[in-house]
């Protein structure tokens, strides 16, 4: 079987798991009586009472809509009720998104963090199926509130409002992702401006001269002192690589596209070479800035980013090795999906190769669906090229 065929078969397996196991479970047990999404399900498939983080709700909305695009049967009433619950419980008078509520909707954390705003913007790009044109109006209003409240005086954005003095690359990554989603949905020109700003910050600040994507910075955009400033996450090497490759396909300037493509492929190569434990076939949690291992445990989400990165790299480079690595990454992910209750997942794999038996976090569903969608899209592009060539 060719690497492309291996990737095609791997994608088919994930789509079947999504349609036959995950969506039936999470659209029932994963939704409470109010329509809001549960934070986690136990390995028996039952919800576990927990605070409800704002970031999880829009991620679940995306997962449902994305799964429907991939062929799963999704009840639109679940999407509508989930969106209504989110807008009712989490939107502050300022228009920003609060961090957390309890099971009954009582406010537990009224603070606003950039990460949560980014995911609300991201999900709204898919909410035209529910809101129609109002989705774009809502996103533009939230974007204005975010750019006003979180703007850093030098570059980029604060991580919290009010600022706490710590700057992070990760929320910028998800804001970049939201901007790309809106560009692809034909949003207004300000989304492109936002994407260009974050792209420039990534190339000039987040990625160091050795190709390491830094996570934490001080208020002057210097790597944070101590260990925090040295952490490099293989999952984010892959995720930023995937996003920069997407931007390269949208950029108006050929030189910009070329620079982003070069940086992206370097990020992905470093993630694969230094961040993947070949024995376990998993991307580990963290390296240091010299690319030595720091945290050999492996969470689920980096495996999904490895899939996305290699799938798009296969299209951008035409190299079969990326299809082979994408298929390998799917095999790595599938180990986390081998639960006694179909449709769940494990979140953490120990350095010794043992899955930790704990509740399945709903937050992982976004990562899984996004990986399946990215792989499916890349395969469709490959098939189109093959038809044209023949």
> Which band does the percent of strand residues land in?
5-15%
Low-confidence stretches: none
Overall spatial form:
globular
Number of domains: 1
* Overall pLDDT confidence: 98
Helix content: 55-70%
Q: Which topology does CATH recognise? A: Glycosyltransferase
Give the structural class. mainly alpha
Overall radius of gyration: 20 Å
The ordered H/E elements are HEEHHEEEHHHEEHHEHHEEEEEHHEEH
Query: How far apart are the first and last residues' alpha carbons, in Å?
Result: 20 Å
Tally of helical runs: 13
CATH classification class: Mainly Alpha
Taking the sheet with the most strands, its summary is: 3 strands, antiparallel
Lateral arrangement of strands in the main beta sheet:
2-3-4
Strand elements, count: 15
Q: At CATH's second level, what is the architecture?
A: Alpha/alpha barrel
Could you characterize what this model shows?
Keywords: Isomerase. With 390 residues, this protein is mostly helical. The chain has a single domain, classed as Alpha/alpha barrel (Glycosyltransferase), CATH 1.50.10.10. 56% of the residues lie in helices and 8% in strands. It has helices spanning 3-26, 56-69, 76-90, 114-124, 128-131, 134-150, 169-184, 189-206, 234-250, 254-275, 301-317, 320-334, 363-389, and strands at 40-41, 52-53, 100-101, 107-109, 112-113, 160-161, 167-168, 216-217, 276-277, 282-283, 286-287, 293-295, 298-299, 348-349, 360-361. The strands form 7 sheets. It has a 3-stranded antiparallel beta sheet with strand order 2-3-4, with no helix packed on it. A two-stranded antiparallel ribbon has the order 1-15. The chain starts with a helix and ends with a helix.
